[in-house]
Amino acid sequence: MNIDRALLMFAGIMILVSLLLTHFVHAGFVWFTVFIAANMMQASVTGFCPAVMIFRKLGIKKGCAFE
């Protein structure tokens, strides 16, 4: 698995978690979903993503999107 695929997996998991929290805990957790979407949009424009830095430190090999 490379960083690109790990980031997609992480984003998908976080979106599902936030939607479950919104449904079962409190409607205010919808803002967590908004935050995730905004972070994904800014990462696509700037190429900067904090999760990628963490994945690099964990030793996950590079992909082609985040170099």
Automatic annotation (TrEMBL):
UniProt KW keywords: Membrane, Transmembrane, Transmembrane helix
KW Protein biosynthesis (keyword) present: no
Gene3D superfamilies: 6.10.140.1340
Pfam families linked: YgaP-like_TM
Membrane spanning residue stretches: 7-25, 31-55
Membrane as UniProt keyword: yes
Record InterPro entries: YgaP-like_TM
Inner membrane protein YgaP-like transmembrane domain mapped to chain residues: 2-56
Highest taxon of source: Bacteria
Protein name: Inner membrane protein YgaP-like transmembrane domain-containing protein
Organism: Marinospirillum alkaliphilum DSM 21637
